Amino acid sequence: MAKYYVRPDGLHESIRTINGKRVPFRGKSDREVDKKILEYKETAKKGRKVKEIAKGWEISRESEISESSRHVYSYSVARLVDSVGDKFASEVTPQELQKQISDFAKTHSRNTAQIELAVMKMIFDSAVVSGDIATSPADKVRIPKHTIPPKRRESLTDEQERALVALEDHRKGEGVSLG
Question: How far is the C-alpha of 146 from the C-alpha of 126, rounded, in Å?
């Protein structure tokens, strides 16, 4: 067991270079400093938690995407963080993500599910690039073939438009009859 520098305030200290960064470790005893070093190395092996990666991804994309895209992406990020946010990125399995997308696609259109999957893939790709994980668990996730068809939207007919105008006039108190 190595002796560590004892600071004037009484704390024992050791500064280690881990993954190219100098990291100070301090404790009340040499044993406590050793314990903190081991915990840090274990955490570094696991990588960051998904919620930290997602937050970093959102911040990095802030200037690159439009306000409306950022607004839509924020819902997907929130759903991902709710489901696997407290896990380390290395602990997330493709099966978990596939189940999440499959469940999501049961209640949403294919286009919405594609956005959900795209955001998921971008977040885990950023985790690969930053070195948190070696391969993305979202790479092989697919949207199920049977999803809810998109809602068909059509313009109002002349009759529906007149009825809507009459209803608005009636609400404003202009007294136009609906019949």
Answer: 29
Query: What value does the mean pLDDT of the chain take?
Result: 87
φ and ψ of 3, to 5 deg: -85, 145
Other beta carbons within 10 Å of 150 = 11
CA-based torsion, 23, 28, 30, 35: positive or negative: negative
Q: What single string gives the DSSP state of each residue in 73-132? A: HHHHHHHHHHHHTTSBGGG--HHHHHHHHHHHHHHSBHHHHHHHHHHHHHHHHHHHHHTS
SS3 26: strand
- Quick check: pTM over 0.70? no
For tokens 């990588």, name the residue: 47
Contacts of 114 (CB under 8 A, 6+ apart): 143
